[in-house]
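From the pipeline queue, job 12 of 40. The input is one protein chain; the requested action is below.

Action: predict structure.
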Amino acid sequence: NPGTLNAKNLSEMNSMYFNRLSMGLQAWQDRLLKKLGRIHTAEEFETNFCQARDAGFKNINVDIMFSLPEQSFEDWQETIENVIRLKPEHISSYSLIIEEGTPFYDLYEKEVYQETDEELDRAMYHTAVQILAEEDYHQYEISNFAKDGKESRHNRIYWRDEGYLGFGLGAHSYWEGKRFHNPYDLHTYMEQAENGNVSMEDVEELSLADQYGEFMFMGLRLTEGIEKKRFAQRFGVDMEDVYGMEIEKCKKEGLLEEKAGWLRLTERGLDLSNQVFMEFLKEDA
């Protein structure tokens, strides 16, 4: 988080072999940052970014958001242009999602803020795609753009629905069809770690239907799509045997396309991705 960084802790992180930073700018306009409840200003973000470069970090991602309350199209353009000026290796561009139980949701319910209309939301998205492409940022996932060779290996594991292990206090893992996390309580974690037996908490075992669905809608977030043979290798059944009707429906609607054994979203499908993903959610397998 910008505003929590300084030259000293950035230098210490670099000396400890951390090799990539992800910095949450979100917007370039201080008035929007204040509405988001962020503790930093655009100036503080830029200072932290330059300090990270001085500390030796050569692989930095910057998170930015569109469809924010009271954010204009010009605000969004200004944010993109200022981030590009700093030349990060990776940019993540997300649309604001209003979740129940959050302060933003309450403000929208009370009509303090109006939700960004769909036309402006799509204009912001397409503008980001166009500008970033012109600056040689390759869009390899719906919301992620990178210079060549700087795609996030960390996040690609999620999108390819591969297993990962989390180490440390409260760290989350996904392994052999199960989700779980380490203890959140520091003393419990330290005691268990010293005994070499850290417990798995809140274990969730995914059904086969859930595993099918997550493989599909996570993989389709990647612009390269899903290699169909990976589905067969993973589950021992062809993709068409599970989702043949759904795939054909999305193809006819111009949302999915297939080429050389790969299934991916079309340009229209990228705009209507949630509609596509819903097709792959089944209650049982």
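Job complete. Residues 228 and 253 are 20 Å apart (CA to CA).
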